[in-house]
TrEMBL record:
This is glutathione transferase. Residues 88-226 form the GST C-terminal domain. One of its GO terms (cellular component) is cytosol. Belongs to the GST superfamily. Theta family. GO terms for biological process: glutathione metabolic process. Residues 1-82 form the GST N-terminal domain. Its main location: cytoplasm. It comes from Catagonus wagneri. The keyword Ion transport does not apply. It is found in: Cytoplasm. Keywords: Cytoplasm, Transferase. Homodimer. It catalyses: RX + glutathione = an S-substituted glutathione + a halide anion + H(+).
Length: 240
């Protein structure tokens, strides 16, 4: 049995894994795990990933969770161009630095922006408080400035002159608040130019395909009441 990827393109880490595999011609069988239907909580999926999260990978008898681990596994198993995860020690360290930073900062902010602005109102049938939304968007602004000033600076990409895993992870995160209607790139010309460069490096068609669902997030329909009762505590814990 070949490589299998368990993904839901609602998830930003899943989009990063999907784009990376497709862009590099890595053959895989796609298993869609619908998060809003609670399919990640099923006993069947727990056999693949006991953590009950996506993305997940199965390669024969080997299974793997966590998006960064999956991306690194794919770079090491398949002959992908060096720029994704450079052999040069310092260039590689720059990629590692971003991947270590983003998990509890930008990812959290982008996730909260989507859920506070769009998804929780769908689940709860009422908007979150204006104070909560303002605090969420203010925190996002702080980390967007860090992304631009500390990581991007005056470079074309986060780790140097070519795209890397850092850029792919970052852009899929930022498309979460974009899907919620946030003007993430407005007034940030360096960040806007970087986005254009990432899209061009990935390929516009693939980029749009991967983000088709998230860009329609505002039109999503929540799960039924029974499933919402099961999902909501996990969602709230995730975005605290």
């Amino acid at each position: 049995m070949g490589l299998e990827l368990y993904l839901d393109l609602l998830s930003q880490p899943c989009r990063a894994v999907y784009i990376f595999a497709k862009k590099n011609g890595i053959p895989f069988e796609l298993h869609t795990v619908d998060l809003l239907k609670g399919q990640h909580l099923s006993d069947a999926f727990a056999q693949v990933n006991p953590l009950q999260k996506v993305p997940a990978l199965r390669d024969g008898d080997f299974t793997l969770s966590e998006s960064v681990a999956i991306l690194l596994y794919l770079t090491r198993k398949y002959k992908v161009p060096d720029y994704w995860y450079p052999q040069d020690l310092q260039a590689c360290a720059r990629v590692d630095e971003y991947l270590a930073w983003q998990h509890k900062t930008l990812r959290r902010n982008c996730l909260r922006a989507l859920w506070h602005k769009v998804m929780l109102p769908l689940f709860l049938r009422e908007p979150v408080s204006p104070e909560t939304l303002r605090a969420t968007l203010a925190e996002l602004d702080v980390n967007l400035k860090v992304l631009e000033d500390k990581f991007l600076q005056n470079k074309a990409f986060l780790a140097g002159p070519q795209i890397s895993l850092a850029d792919l992870v970052a852009i899929t995160e930022l498309m979460h608040p974009v899907g919620a209607g946030c003007q993430v790139f407005e007034g940030r010309p360096k960040l806007a130019a970087w986005r254009q460069g990432v899209e061009a490096a990935v390929g516009e068609a693939l980029f749009q395909e991967a983000h088709e669902f998230i860009l329609k997030a505002k039109d999503s329909q929540p799960a039924d009441d029974t499933l919402k009762q099961k999902l909501l505590p996990k969602v709230l814990a995730m975005i605290q």
